[in-house]
Amino acid sequence: MQISKRLEMVADMVTRGGVVADIGTDHAYIPIYLIENKKAERAIAMDVNEGPLQRAREHILQHALDRLIDTRLSDGLEALEPQEADCVVIAGMGGPLTVRILTQGEGKLSVHTELILQPQSEIAAVRSWTEEHGWEIVREEMIREDGKYYPMMRAIRKIDSAEDEKPLSQVEKKYGRLLLQRRDPVLEAFLRHELILGKRILSALEGQRAEAAAKRRDEVTEEIQMIETALGGF
């Protein structure tokens, strides 16, 4: 099965051999891909809306995988049994929704469950959640597809917390400690793109005295400072 570069990278982050729950599965592309490529023994395709779930069922049947992929109508992890999944995938949702799903469904996850997360917005909030709830981000990737940038991560439960382990900085929460540490070229391209965009916005706001313009100017200035701090490591 052919899938997008974004979804292929998400699937690549899944550890081989377990049961995968795909939250907000839409067309069930990830579960089908994982089963066909023998990366998962079984999968659970879950969605909050019946329409996408029906499309998922149709695609699963087309690939003759209905014995290996369950479909469930579910708000987040609600329909998942406790400790049922070895891996939970949440890809393509906004950061706040991702955080809500994880917070409400955390009791369904075992100490061995891995999380594959690809938020579409406010990714700093997701990284903050993992840190605050005892999860460790062990892999981060970023790809560019159709002119858009997609960061994603794999997180596992922390077993031991090293005394000298530093909490994530605001820059690391926003752009990813592991991406920054390895000087990821896709992240660098994203940062330089955002820097140019930020400076253009700042230039357009120059001279405007309205309160809203002043507030926006402060926000963009702070954003530029964070980008420049991140770029300092490249």
In short:
The chain has 234 residues and is an alpha/beta fold. The chain is 44% helix and 21% strand.
Describe this structure in words.
The protein has helices spanning 5-12, 29-36, 50-62, 95-105, 123-132, 170-175, 177-181, 185-205, 211-231; strands at residues 18-23, 40-47, 69-73, 87-91, 114-118, 135-145, 148-157. 44% of the residues lie in helices and 21% in strands. It has 9 helices and 7 strands, in the order H-E-H-E-H-E-E-H-E-H-E-E-H-H-H-H. Helix 4 packs parallel to helix 5. The model has no long low-confidence stretch (mean pLDDT 94). The chain has a 7-stranded mixed β-sheet, sandwiched between helices.
Global geometry: globular
Main sheet: strands, sense, barrel: 7 strands, mixed
Strand tally: 7
Helix content: 40-55%
Total DSSP helices? 9
The overall pLDDT average reads: 94
Quaternary organisation of the protein chains: single chain
Radius of gyration: 19 Å
Low-pLDDT stretches are none
Strand order of the largest sheet: 3-2-1-4-5-7-6
β-strand percent reads 15-25%
- What structural class do helix, strand and pairing data support? alpha/beta
One letter per element, helices H and strands E, the order comes to: HEHEHEEHEHEEHHHH
End-to-end distance: 37 Å
List keywords for this structure.
234 residues; alpha/beta
Secondary-structure topology with pairs:
Blueprint: H1 5-12, E1 18-23, H2 29-36, E2 40-47, H3 50-62, E3 69-73, E4 87-91, H4 95-105, E5 114-118, H5 123-132, E6 135-145, E7 148-157, H6 170-175, H7 177-181, H8 185-205, H9 211-231
Parallel strand pairs: 1-2, 1-4, 2-3, 4-5
Antiparallel strand pairs: 5-7, 6-7
